[in-house]
Amino acid sequence: MNDSKNFELKYTGAPTASAVAFFMNNKSTLPASSMTNKMNITLNDTVNNTEGLVGILAKGTAGEINNQGNITGNAGYGIISEGVEVRNSGNITLPNPLDVC
């Protein structure tokens, strides 16, 4: 996602479910492979979600995600990574983090 544009995830679903703005899957097995996000993401929770909204869910077996966009919202998770390194130069602002039990 190499556009420096804005994207809003406006969540109006069940308060006990979760939602992801962007899913990035690195299918390469090369350690030097990378994915880049320059998109600004706003997480807009209209139902006081208890499971969390996620800006970016990044998966892979190697490589990294380079986040250069800003991720903002009231609560949730900026980036969740499974198997890839995260390099962040954007601002992630979520002033009310969720309690994980």
General description of the model:
This protein has 101 residues and is an all-beta fold. Helix content is 0%, strand content 50%. The strands form three sheets. It has a four-stranded parallel beta sheet, with no helix packed on it.
Low-confidence stretches: none
Shape: globular
> What structural class do helix, strand and pairing data support?
mainly beta
What summary fits the major beta sheet?
Answer: 4 strands, parallel
Mean pLDDT: 87
Spatial strand sequence of the major β-sheet = 1-4-7-10
Question: Roughly how many Å apart are the termini?
Answer: 33 Å
Helix count, DSSP H or I runs of 4 or more residues: 0
Percent of residues in beta strands: over 45%
The level of helicity is: under 10%
H and E order: EEEEEEEEEE
* Rounded radius of gyration (Å): 14 Å
Strand tally is 10
What is the structure about, briefly put?
The chain contains no helices and 10 strands. It is mostly beta strands and 101 residues long. The chain is globular.
